[in-house]
Amino acid sequence: MATSLVKYVGELRTEATHLQSGTLINTDAPKDNHGKGEAFSPTDLVATALASCMISIMGIVAMKEGFTTIDGAIAEVTKVMYAEPRRIGEIYVKITFPKKNFSEKEKKMYEHAAYTCPVAKSLHPDLKQVVEFIW
Question: Which of 79, 107, 108, 122 is deepest in the core (most CB within 10 A)?
Fold first, then answer.
């Protein structure tokens, strides 16, 4: 079964529908690539998906292991574009955790989960992924 349906709506914009839930995501080309920058660009979504995947997998670890919850963790994402060919060259993810007493074991397992999440493992190895954990 298909995952999503993406419709080009004109003016360098798309509307993506998640078929299982009906959730919509709109995209717009960035200002530096002929767009208006009024919504996530497709490359913004890739960078954002990396952080979302990392936090989701850490949440699964917390649930499975009975660890301290990471509820309230925030990931700040910075995407750096390269030219020739135009592509995402670097993604910086800064994850700030709620102020809790995480054990060293928990920290190690959460960090491993982040680095090995499916999106991180799916991105090209030339794409630099830099992750900072703020405990």
Answer: 79
**Span 69-114, pLDDT tens digits:** 999 999 999 999 999 999 999 999 999 999 999 999 999 999 999 9
Cα–Cα distance measured from residue 90 to residue 71, given in angstroms and rounded to the nearest whole number: 27
Q: Is 81 helix (H, G, I), strand (E, B) or coil?
A: strand
44: CB partners within 8 A, 6+ apart: 27, 30, 79
DSSP classification of residue 22 = -
Q: pLDDT tens digits for 3-26?
A: 999 999 999 999 999 999 999 999
CA dist 44 to 64, 88, 91, Å? 30, 9, 10
Cut 0.85: pTM above it: yes
**How far apart are the C-alpha atoms of 44 and 33, rounded to whole Å?**
13
What pLDDT was estimated at residue 26? 98
Domain(s) of CATH 3.30.300.20: residues in the chain: 42-134
